[in-house]
């Protein structure tokens, strides 16, 4: 959407240009009527007069024509001054608007807590941005290409963007890495992703870091550098292709579940907060389907120090803080469950 101030600047410029064209027409007509010159000579005389270039007159002027020439000179000076002011105003306003939006964005990012940082807004990054938009989760996007950021900002006006090199510590700090909950690095070069992992881990030891690695030999280095998870596109694509042949209906179902924005049902996760009054209660007692409309598909629980998934849990399954509920439903129902758990804490 165009800024009203910027539109006003272009409107003023257009009015000044129309004024100059009108002055040319008046000057041509005046010299034709007063001196009886031809149209070309009249146009030339008018142009050199209001532009004040100081060329010699086309022909000697009568007294009345000299007064008319003074009018053209004065009007030309005024309009050229207005033209210069209008052009300057457009660029100044543009810079002011950019600086204002940049400061506003920085303040918004500084207020963020437990957000996620995305490094790189290429094809993979765009998919991630769209998923975070659907999930209504705060995301700060770091991208070096200003054109990419401008394009994304038009499609996702609520997202937070920073133009900068994600491999530099100061850029990560500007994105609030010290207060972030997670970081996703999808830069095109494995080397750059490795630098991001090292920097992010040093700045925030508790950060959940997911990095992209094209070369599987680099994946081990990323884990050593501090990555929580490393995703290899080649491995993922190979598994996906094989699954599409072996289990086509399942893959089709998951595609609809994960990528159809119009579909009400999606797979989501909810973490049980600490000190909840639901501690030690069963799924039957909590009544999640009745209260929220969600279906509990699985529960991730830590048993003897090992994380395990309890798929299709029975109604008598007890939950505790830190358990992760994998549920089926829309985002509104998930927020309803979160609110229900928070009220239980209070």
CATH class of the largest domain: Alpha Beta
What CATH architecture of the largest domain do you see? 3-Layer(aba) Sandwich
Total number of β-strand segments?
A: 10
Provide mean pLDDT, rounded: 81
- SSE topology string: HHHEHEHEHEHEHEHHEHHEEEH
Assign the CATH topology of the largest domain. Rossmann fold
Helix count from the secondary structure assignment: 13
**How far do the termini sit from each other?**
43 Å
**In percent terms, what proportion of residues is strand?**
15-25%
Main beta-sheet strand count, sense and barrel state:
6 strands, parallel
Helices and strands: which structural class?
alpha/beta
Report Rg. 33 Å
CATH superfamily descriptor of the largest domain: NAD(P)-binding Rossmann-like Domain
Strand order of the largest sheet: 3-2-1-4-5-6
Q: Roughly what percent helix?
A: 55-70%
The stretches of 5 or more residues where confidence is low (pLDDT under 50) are none
Shape: elongated
Number of self-contained structural domains: 3
Describe the structure.
This protein is α/β, with parallel strands linked by helices and 346 residues long. It has three domains: 4-107, Helix Hairpins, CATH 1.10.287.70; 112-231, Rossmann fold, CATH 3.40.50; 264-345, Alpha-Beta Plaits. Helix content is 56%, strand content 15%. The protein is built from 13 helices and ten strands. The protein has helices spanning 4-35, 39-50, 63-110, 123-135, 146-155, 169-174, 190-203, 216-225, 233-246, 248-259, 283-286, 288-292, 331-345, and strands at residues 116-119, 139-143, 160-163, 182-185, 208-212, 229-231, 266-271, 295-303, 306-311, 324-329. It has a six-stranded parallel sheet, sandwiched between helices. It has a four-stranded antiparallel sheet with strand order 7-10-8-9, covered by helices on one side. Helix 7 links the parallel strand 4 (182-185) and strand 5 (208-212). The longest helix has 48 residues, at 63-110. The radius of gyration is 33 Å and the shape is elongated.
